[in-house]
Predict the structure.
Amino acid sequence: MDEVFVEGQFLGLPPTEGDADVVILPLAFELTTSYGTGTAEGPLACIEASGQVELYDPMLSSDLPAGCTIRTEKAWEGTAGDLMGQLDQLVDHANPWYSGHQFPLFLGGEHGILPPIVQAASNHPLVNGDLSKLTIVQIDAHADLRESLDDEPFSHACAASRSLDLGVGALLQAGIRACSRQEIALINSDDRITTFFAKDTQHPHSGASSWNQWLESLSTLSGPVHLTLDIDGLDGALVPATGTPVPGGLSFWQVIETIEAVFAAPNATIISADINEIVAQEDTPLTQFTAACLATKAVACHILARQEGRWKASTAGRQEHPKSTFFKEWSTTPPSSN
Ligand SMILES: [Mn+2]
């Protein structure tokens, strides 16, 4: 029997009342995008495109939502007049979903959404205020480890370095093929960072061995993990509308394999994910449909983790938090970087 298709809802699924197991959070955030523009409409285009994604996933014994509940929240749009104010508003928006019951999947929006998401993730019971317990797994063309870009330390090009400044314990990156000398120096000097470069994993002869090492390192993940997928980590041919498409990237199946490997890591709990730099493509929905397929895979993997007892969910519902002033304070007194 066909389900009712509901527009504006992820996968076209009817909205659920109350606290859902999975919450889809579109974030129309675009303040520092450097090259192309249009990341504000991208998340909604991705949700629309998700209506065309199959509800059948061979991993699951029934069609999505496979006994779970999925809710799509209204698109967030910042109202603060400055960047730090917007980052604090993003923290406030993300905070309630880290009670340990829901799985939040953020759809961005430029990659600058990552530091406020990480800051909110510190409320998750498995992190419990100590971000050194948290690992970030990042798919990206860019290392996003710059000190600043165009004098802006909270640029999308600094998403990973600012997250490390917040105290994140480990960062694993793949797909990387555009970075600066300063970023390479940081990769070599900060032992929290493990980077798999696309020139190695995509090498026509030796690529398979490098790729297997990436999958191997994912299988040894432990503790709470946030997965951040910048869609420009995929080869530019798959996501031509994203702000900075780059040739020589990961194949669709490599990203699917990465998502499956992260969620399958026996000692890790994937507490949240984001898919970012989604831009609506006009002549064909390829870019947003590719993002929607990855989002669906992440949701399916999370549901499988619940079914297999690998989601240590609390029963707590949405929680209230005081308004964040964290980033406003950072702009005057940055946290000491490790
Ligand atoms: Mn990025």
Notes: The pocket of manganese (II) ion is lined by residues 111, 140, 142, 144, 156, 159, 230 (CB under 6 Å). The radius of gyration is 18 Å. The domain at 10-330 is CATH 3.40.800.10 (Arginase; Chain A). The beta strands are 22-27, 70-72, 103-108, 135-139, 170-176, 193-197, 222-230, 267-276.
